[in-house]
Design goal:
The protein is mostly helical and 98 residues long. The protein contains 3 helices and no strands. The chain has helices at 27-44, 50-68, 74-89. α2 packs across α3 (74-89). The two termini are 24 Å apart.
Length: 98
């Protein structure tokens, strides 16, 4: 939620560090994101939003790049690893991981 000052207030007290990003989805992409959030709610047995699902999907994509693919550029490979590790180190979305 926007606190009126451009900062996004989130769960876990991390609102001051968050940036609001607006993304436009096709109806099919939105349906997929809604389904992912519903599935994660069932797995995590807690209330998770579509934002939680999007972060979980991002974490999953970074993990796939690391574990399943050989990113040829060493600088890009290091960036992917660092971003995934940083995301996990500052995880505020609870068990919303795939």
């Amino acid at each position: 939620m926007d606190g009126g000052d451009g900062e996004v207030r989130g769960r876990g007290g991390a609102g001051a560090d968050r940036t609001e990003v607006r993304v436009r989805f096709t109806p099919e992409e939105r349906a997929g994101l809604t389904a992912l959030a519903a599935g994660l709610r069932g797995v995590a047995e807690s209330e998770l939003s579509e934002e939680d699902a999007l972060v979980a999907a991002l974490e999953h994509a970074l993990t796939r790049l690391i574990d399943d693919f050989e990113v040829p550029d060493p600088t890009a490979r290091e960036e992917v690893q660092r971003a995934r590790d940083d995301l996990r180190a500052h995880w505020i979305r609870g068990a919303a991981t795939l």
